[in-house]
Specification:
Layout (H helix, E strand, L loop, with lengths): L2 H35 L13 E6 L7 H6 L10 E7 L6 H11 L4 E6 L8 H9 L7 E4 L4 E2 L4 H9 L4 E5 L1 E6 L3 H23 L11 E4 H6 L12 H11 L3 E3 L4 E6 L4 H18 L1 H6 L5 H7 L5 H26 L9 H15 L4 E4 L2 E5 L5 E3 L7
Parallel strand pairs: 1-2, 1-4, 2-3, 6-9, 7-10
Antiparallel strand pairs: 4-8, 5-10, 6-8, 11-12, 12-13
């Protein structure tokens, strides 16, 4: 009888190592899929569509004006409205918008300052306030911390023209703009998130819709109820995609890449951001999120070291080698090393820790507001910490 607990523990250790081995195989497959997905494609022709780009802003992010400028430095012949919104008249982001107006005097850059609150999601409240000021038929929503290439609009519009396409979203890699911890955050995007989202989309295992870009026609936005339909939803980008799909239309992710500028200056900022993201994904796609543990094969192997030291060390080494493959491919696609490769083991262990912590969390921090999570991705904000 004394051997029964030991046998059970050993069995669990072997099971964990089995998951690690599956994860290593998945990483190689993800690297192959990633490289294939972004294989050379035909250059998109210049377009003259009239486009409104929505930018909900809050705070003075590093390089904010430069990031916004990339949306105006486009190989595009049609009119573009850059519609920016803040909810406080003293928001530091206003200075970035004014600098942008000086830099691009011929561009249409509209700034809306509106403190009206709508529900618990501050970003969506900002978008609800912007919606009446949209002037063009194609609407492109993109988070404030994104940067794009000059062919962004031409390729985006070509994808939106595809049959049965209701919305277009775009995968993204990471770039650290605020020191060490921001580079760790960016590494999570480039080395973990990007291979995963591309693998899921390419093999029709997921239907991503991401805040990096959500492009749709104005009538589609109206058909899903406008932004007001998502005022109390934490995963607003995912919910918008699901609403478009409910119309019988597709959410397309073309083979193009944009860059997310990570701005975490401390471990605390990084932890709160990734915990919120993990808990959000857990609530909207719980089974897929739980299965995602195989995408972290290195820390899985480490867990078995006290019980099966030699097999665990061998599979940990194999996992690191396998993890290098999508990491190198992702950085080549992004055109730069996201972070030093020696940080990969640390990054994966942090990812695993966030994964475990996110399984039980019921409230998250969003830019200073505490959001309580309810069923089906809905949220409520504590009244003493409103969006500001």
């Amino acid at each position: 009888m004394a051997n029964v607990p030991i046998a059970i523990i050993a069995g669990l250790a072997w099971a964990v190592l089995g998951l690690s081995l599956i994860g290593s195989a998945y990483m190689v497959a993800a690297a192959i899929t990633l490289r294939s997905f972004f294989s050379p494609v035909a250059v998109a022709a210049r377009r003259n569509d009239a486009v409104t780009i929505l930018k909900p802003l809050r705070g003075a992010e590093p390089r904010l004006a430069d990031n916004l400028a990339t949306f105006l430095e486009q190989d595009h012949d049609g009119p573009v409205q850059l519609l920016c919104g803040v909810q406080r008249p003293d928001d530091p982001a206003i200075a970035a918008v004014e600098a942008l107006r000086t830099r691009f005097p011929q561009a249409r850059i509209d700034l809306i300052v509106d403190p009206t609150s709508h529900g618990a999601n501050g970003k969506i409240a900002n978008l609800i306030n912007l919606e009446p000021h949209i002037v063009h038929g194609v609407v492109v929503l993109s988070d404030s911390d994104m940067t794009v290439n000059p062919d962004y609009l031409s390729r985006l519009l070509a994808a939106l023209d595809m049959p049965r396409t209701g919305a277009v979203t775009i995968a993204y890699n990471g770039r650290g703009d605020a020191g060490f911890w921001s580079r760790i955050a960016a590494a999570g995007l480039s080395w973990q998130f990007l291979p995963g989202v591309v693998f899921g989309a390419a093999h029709v295992l997921a239907r991503p819709c991401m805040g990096s870009t959500i492009a749709m026609r104005r009538e589609t936005l109206a058909a899903i109820g406008g932004f007001a339909a998502f005022a109390d939803v934490l995963a607003d980008d995912y919910a918008i995609g699901e609403a478009v799909a409910a119309l019988g239309l597709e959410v397309t992710m073309p083979p193009m890449l944009v860059t997310h500028a990570s701005t975490e200056r401390s471990f605390g900022e990084l932890w709160r951001h990734e915990l919120r993201w993990g808990a959000t994904v857990r609530d909207v796609v719980p089974i897929a999120y739980a299965m995602g543990v195989i995408a972290i094969p290195f820390p899985l192997a480490l867990l078995a070291i006290p019980i099966l030291p030699l097999p665990a060390l061998v599979l940990a080494g194999l996992a690191l080698l396998a993890r290098l493959s999508p990491t190198i491919v992702a950085d080549r696609l992004g055109g730069a090393r996201t972070a030093p490769l020696w940080l990969l083991p640390l990054r994966d262990c942090l990812t695993f820790t966030v994964f475990i912590a996110s399984l039980t969390v019921r409230s998250v921090d969003w830019r200073g507001a505490t959001l309580r999570m309810a069923q089906r991705g809905r949220i409520s904000a504590q009244p003493e910490l409103p969006f500001r």
